[in-house]
Amino acid sequence: MADDSTSNTNQSSAEAVANNDDLLNQILVGLPIRSLLQFKSVSKHWLSLITHPHFAGRRTPNLESSGLFVECYSKPLLIPGFDFIPFNNLNPTKPPFTTHPTFVGDPFGIRNFQSCNGLLLCDGRHLYIYNPTTNQFTTTPEPPTHRARTTVNWFNFVCYSSLAFDPSKSPHYKVVSVYSSKTLSEHYDVEIFSSETGLWTPSSTNPLRADNVNFKNGVFWNGALHWIGFWDDDSLYLNIEEDRFGTLPTPPTPDRRDWKRRRDFWESRGHLHLIDIYGSQTKQFNVYEMGSDYSAWFVKYRVDLDAIPNAFPEMVCNSLGCYDFFVLSLIRRENDDESFLVLHIPGKIVRYNFQDNSFSTVLDFPPSHKKFRIGCLDDAFEYVSGLCLKMFPAQNRWESPVF
């Protein structure tokens, strides 16, 4: 009888939880994303709770990168694919995909990727928003300007698109497309797509005049998209909500500077960073961070790669002391002592720790990849687990191999 009584009590408690949406939400909201994806199939009621627009907003978004995708091509057929680098070696994240994403109805394949807080913008014949965690995608409607283009002048048309998404503030995202004619390369028009309305709207700033700005990969930070300038004072940002362009402050320059080898932006854990690398013999450089009020760049980290060529002599590219390396990503951690750079050197990808200048190999390329020139693997993007279930039609699932 005691056993029956205990069983009845447990059953009553379970029913009480199952019938109390507030209590059930409190339990579900604290579960890992992978568990939530499994629990969607428990019942239609649980599915409705988990996919409710307000549910994702109640979760504290974990915007910490768990790994890095590096696009590569297998020789001799140059088949596109990805190497995945987990950042936690003790409990490595399994990659959601390793083959090149392909979507139904896109004959051209995906040419460019941008990662933003758990979502991927995939740029092909169409624009796709893809959630690698849930393996769902949606196709963005074609911008009005694209539809107005004819086949004859399509090849005279340049367009770059960037994704803006902050799950801590809204379950909705925006896509910003910047386009121009090759004959008027300094004049741009800007259109903004909202997932909330499903509409494209022209920016009030049109036409935009911008010299020497790389619009290929926008970086989302502080409610704005940022584009790197090829020169010191050309970098721009677009405040999404205010539909307002601004100019970023000029970064500090060294007293004695050589030709500029590389300049890049990175966002990590709510911080915007910039790296300028001068000259082919450079092994020391600064990482700058932008103040939240856009007042100035300040030195956040000092990088010294002096010990790496001793361990990996293949990094020395000739007798003149030129060094072959490329910064793929910058990763901030909650404990800043654990923050690091990800570098591509010949045949390897290396993790460099800011705190003590230590380094380690995180990926050894197979022979088919070892001859890639430095800089050809610059299509690297972070993997951040994200929920964002409601915005995707249930039927839009990419059946990718998951390992």
TrEMBL record:
Residues 21-55 form the F-box domain. It comes from the Eukaryota. SUPFAM superfamilies: F-box domain, Kelch motif. Residues 107-247 form the F-box associated beta-propeller type domain. CDD domains: F-box_AtFBW1-like. Pfam families: F-box, FBA_1. InterPro entries: At3g26010-like, F-box-assoc_dom_typ1, F-box-assoc_interact_dom, F-box-like_dom_sf, F-box_dom, Kelch-typ_b-propeller. This is F-box domain-containing protein. It comes from Camellia sinensis.
